[in-house]
Amino acid sequence: MFKKTCLSVAIAALLSLSFAASAANDPDLQAIREQIQQLKQSYEQRITQLEQRLAQAEANSHESVPAREQPAVQAASSSESAFNPAILLVLGGTYGQLKQDPAVPTTGFAMSAHPGHQQGFNLGESELGISANIDPDFRGVATLALASAGGVTVENAFVQTSALGNGLNLKFGRYFSGLGYLNEQHAHTWDFVDQPLVYASLWNNQLGEDGVQVKWLAPTDTFIELGAELGRGRGFPGTDRVKNGIGSGVLFAHIGDDIGIEHSWRTGISLHQTRRTDAVSTAVADLPGTPGGVNNSFSGDSRTAGMDFVWKYSPDGNSRYLKVQGEYFQRRESGLLTYDTALANISDRYAATQSGWYLQSVYRFMPHWRSGLRYDRLDPGTASVGALNAGNIISHYGFQPTRTSLMLDYSPSEFSRLRLQLARDNSRQGLPDNQLFVQYIMSLGAHGAHQY
Questions:
Q1: What CA–CA distance (Å, rounded) separates 205 from 184?
Q2: Is 91 helix (H, G, I), strand (E, B) or coil?
Q3: Same domain assignment for residues 306 and 438
């Protein structure tokens, strides 16, 4: 910028002198030439000096700050003006019209989580997110869940590195696990009102963990991501125990690419392992049958393997697109099951392999309108029950829970969404349910980019 200014001044000076020279005699012309030469030398010297000062300043900026100056720098960076986090508040609510009691668990998955819907008007869970760069090396994120009945829970609270290099990223704190495709996505980004049955039954909607996660992004044109996690084991199906050591582990890998300018895809595999200790399931509909069921307890190992894929097609940029995705999970649990903890209290070995999958498609047919179709299916499997409980525990239900959901939503902008969803729920044997949901999602404040 300074060079341009200097040259402009020099050119203006030369022009003014040239105009004056047109009316001057030979001695005057010689004097003018000498003045021009002096001006050129003067400006060249000043430019050279400034370039030297710039080079010296750049060299000094790469040197470490002396120890005696560090407190002053830290004090300046910690001032109020230096702290400027991005804040996002998500408000959501639903109206649910259900025929059956949502508290009844999915058939064959009574020992799993079954987060049911709520009937009538429901405020739902509001989300308060805060994120900011801490310094050149770290970034912090916190997401607080504001329950409709009152109270605040910490959904996410983690620190993430930003300067490891070589495609490495480290995250530590509380986070959603990187397994599968949907698990890392927050509720306000879901394509349907609820999670698929397999997520609700096997992960209690989402697997959250306290621990450390490392990801590596390969330096290739093809998207290749490898990740591993070590955690406390607090998220279902684990048991939050007060003990030293590691309670859970996760491995996952994702690969994806573009096909031309209209198609993109991603697929992945994942493995999760944890341990359940004295995990009590209430109102289990066991073989003898009691009004309201009985309470059982399970302690043992739990291992889940999964596969996921997503394909996106956008023929006209962002105006219209089609997204197809699906996931499959299989869980193997083995250990000791205690039947009817309140009365019989009979413990014996127990093992079961259960699985589930979903396939869904979402189509944006107009700039602000989308429609979606999803099919869920679960397989309770056949349990291996010890002799002491062979007459107490149902080993095979002969029923596979399913559900079909249809949704239509309207988004005036990226900050607001209104949704209508219809579902035919056959997840509970003999209790088919026609469900209707109306939902609103409103985002206030900073709105980060969504994941692929």
A1: 11
A2: strand
A3: yes
